Amino acid sequence: MDVKAIMTRIARMLQATLEDESDCSTVYAVMDEVAEAMEAGVDLSESMPDIHHHLKMCKSCHQELEALQNILHAADPV
Questions:
Q1: Residue 8 pLDDT exceeds 90
Q2: Which of 3, 22, 35, 72 has a 20 to 30 A CA-CA distance from 14?
């Protein structure tokens, strides 16, 4: 990724920053609930908007959620 693309991405992330946001530790604490809610088809943008926003912004938490979802699918294949 070139410098201009990196700067553009950083600017977009700053614009999307909320005044009161959840941090990674908050998201990790409810990660199992989030995975189960998503599995049940719950719209996180409505039920957990702060968590939803954090997952959109934080690559690390998003990857952790994907890993947990993969584990859940492997344990209980449909």
A1: no
A2: 35
- Residue carrying structure tokens 């947990």: 68
pLDDT of residue 6: 80
Closest by CA position to 50, among listed 63, 36, 61: 61
Residues 37 and 47: their CA atoms lie apart, in Å, by: 9
Residue 27: pLDDT above 90? Answer: yes
In this structure, what token pair is assigned to residue 63? 């990857």
**Closest CA relative to residue 47, chosen from 34, 60, 31, 61:** 34
AA letter at 64: E
CB of 22 closer than 8 Å to CB of 56: no
